Amino acid sequence: MSVEVTSQARAGGQIAKPVVEKGRLTWGRLALTIHAALMYLFLYLPIVILVIFSFTRDEFGIRWTGFTLDWYIRLFSNERLMGAALNTLNVAFVSTLVSTILGTLTALAMERHRFRGRTGVDAVLYLPIVIPEIVMGVALLAFSAFAFDLIGAVTGQTIRRNLSTVIIAHIAFSISFVVVVVRTSLKSFDHRLEEAAHDLGADSWQTFWRITFPLILPGIIGGALLAFTLSLDDFIISLFLSGPGTSLLPVEVYNKVRRAVTPEVNAISTLMLILSISLVIFSQVVQRRR
Hints:
By secondary structure, this protein is mostly helical. The protein has helices at about 1-10, 25-55, 70-75, 80-110, 120-130, 135-155, 165-185, 190-200, 205-230, 235-240, 250-260, 265-290.
């Protein structure tokens, strides 16, 4: 009987597919469910504990002794920590804006044009992604010292490391990540839409803003969010490139954690987490509307 059914299915040009009963719990499905649950607990349970302990009365932030908002009040009155947070946000926003613009233009040039040395440029773009961050930090520190000495020898002025050097360093390593994300969007881009726009009388500028840019906008937003996140939590490059008197949040949090973990650190971490989640939700809303 089964042979006849198989032969009839093949004669009709269809291959019989195995029927999987829905809702039936098997050992494999149970193992995958348990594995997924454990992975989610491993990834998100520390974050939940961090948020909870930002409201505890315990001075060390490691035990739950009651609910309070005092640590958030103390946080906003801590000028050094709030100044470091504002400096970090300033660096992140400026470096993200510049790296997104330059990375998008670079991705368009790499995907749309063929030029001599393109393979070498492509390899150089991947260097900040594949090399260790400590190597990137030392290289940027050495380059900034060489550039400052050269400028001082020419102009006679002494330049010290400040927020500007941190911004330039973050732009240097964020561009590569933006290029990778935007180039992924360009890989699946339908060029016939641009050709149709040209046939209808649109020039290159109108075609880019009305056809190309809206279609690759999700990739641009994804690259910008990645660059913003990398700049926000970068520690090594911020530690090497920030000069005396320049405080950034990752460095300040590290210095506080070395002495003792206080709920103020949990509070500022919770606020930065809320900011990151808000940006992700905003990007999803913008992409759905478009």
